[in-house]
Amino acid sequence: MDNLRLHYLQQLDFPECTKVGLQHIEEYLSQGSQRSGGGGRIPGLGGSTSDNPAQQIAQEFVFFHTSRRPYHQRLSAIQELQVLEILCNHFHEQRDSKKAMALFDVLFGNAGQLEVLCRLVSMGVAVQCKSLLYCAAIWMELQGCTSPNPTKLCKMLVDDYCLLVPSATSVLCGLPHISRRFTCNFMTSVTSLYPFSGDQCPPYALVEMITEWINKDPGLGLVSLTPADKSVIQKTQGRYGQVAQPWLSKVQTPIPGLAHWCIVAPLTQEAIRAKLDNRHGETAMETEHTNNTESKNLQIYSKLNVGIIQTMVSVNPEQSKIYLAMQDMFLLVKTVTGLIQQIANPTENDSVQTALDRLGQFFQVAKGTGGLQCDKGDLARMCQPLPSNRFLEILQQQTEAS
Predict the structure, then answer these.
(1) How far is CA 272 from CA 268, 291, 333, 359, in A?
(2) What distance in Å separates the CA atoms of residue 357 and residue 281, rounded to the nearest whole number?
(3) Beta carbons of 330 and 324 less than 8 angstroms apart
(4) Other CB atoms within 10 Å distance of the CB of residue 125
């Protein structure tokens, strides 16, 4: 039967062979699910391509990496675009999230199709394909949102919608309405993509968009704390093994990364200002432009900081989950300390004090809402390398007295 199906597909022309091939893949997956009682290994997940008809069809009739047809040749750029449209339409029409995730895993469980996945998700954002973005969100969590593959995916989205065509940012702005889970994981990835060091600062359009998201929907940054449907995750167990329920271990949220941006931003801006002050021959117009840019940056990160605090406060204390480790705080302090050492008279510098105030706020709210567990002496150790700051001193006094 498998050979008959393959032979039939080989007789079809493009793009019909791709459309029918996707249907056959889902038939194989459905048969495998029925044989295993809805759980266990599914045909197409794990094992070699030659042993799995579903993967064999995907390789030959979706990605066209192999073909036994004598006239086979690589797809043209237009045909590759047609494949993306076919995939996007197929996921859009698939209303069953379990079936969609099983198909997604057959197609993109291997890193070899990462470039195709990046282009497909970019198209999925443009056409608002909810099913595809939900599958991509689960894939990101299973991979780890800050790991290389999800980060590469999000970099392409930033390039496509924030950098290459700035006017296209409006398309990405609607992402939370398509998939809140994907939006949450996207934010987590981009905070890793732009660690706010050297020239790796996030584009202003990206920061502005995330700030808008967070302030409109405070719970958006904590969506990944909510477990995905276990029956959906089970469809990937053949590929990811024991990493099938990532929320049971260390959950990744965008909160630590976004807080890092807000705390480090005034210090980075201070370093930029110092460099410009040492530059000679700057015109009055250039000086005004620099001041306007600085003011705009300071305002947007101040607004983002308010949104992050609102997000952490929105957590239900009875359902709170740890989303921040004390080790994250120590790493953040190490970065902050390094930047402060480059600034003269840090105790009297407004940018330094703003950064330290935000650091204290972040610690206080994360601990108070149950997002951070720490020992009584952790705060004192965290503050030890930092300059004097009134808010941090008050926090230490309150901690010692409790």
Answers:
(1) 6, 11, 20, 21
(2) 35
(3) no
(4) 24
pLDDT band at 128 (very low <50, low <70, confident <90, very high): very high
| pLDDT tens string 245-281 | 433 345 689 999 999 999 999 999 887 776 666 655 5
Q: Are 214 and 220 in contact (CB under 8 A)?
A: yes
Burial class (CB in 10 A: 0-12, 13-18, 19+), 385: middle
The confidence band for 184, taking pLDDT boundaries of 50, 70 and 90, is: very high
Name residue, tokens 């994250």: 328
Q: Is there a contact between 298 and 269 (Cβ–Cβ < 8 Å)? A: yes
CB 57 within 8 A of CB 12: no
Tokens representing 377?
């002496």
Q: What is the pLDDT of residue 192?
A: 93
The Cα 141–Cα 40 span in angstroms is: 21
Structure pTM?
Answer: 0.88
Distance (Å, rounded) from C-alpha 199 to C-alpha 202?
9
Q: Which two tokens stand for residue 382?
A: 């965290």
- CA gap 17, 254 in Å, rounded: 41
25 in Cβ contact with 106 (< 8 Å): yes
* Confidence category of residue 321, pLDDT binned at 50, 70, 90: confident
Q: What share of the chain is helix, strand, coil (3-state, %, to 5)?
A: 70, 0, 25
> For residues 327 and 26, what is the distance between their CA atoms, to the nearest angstrom?
44
Task: Find where tokens 């930047």 sit.
Answer: 339
Q: Are 22 and 85 in contact (CB under 8 A)?
A: no
- For residues 250 and 33, what is the distance between their CA atoms, to the nearest angstrom? 30
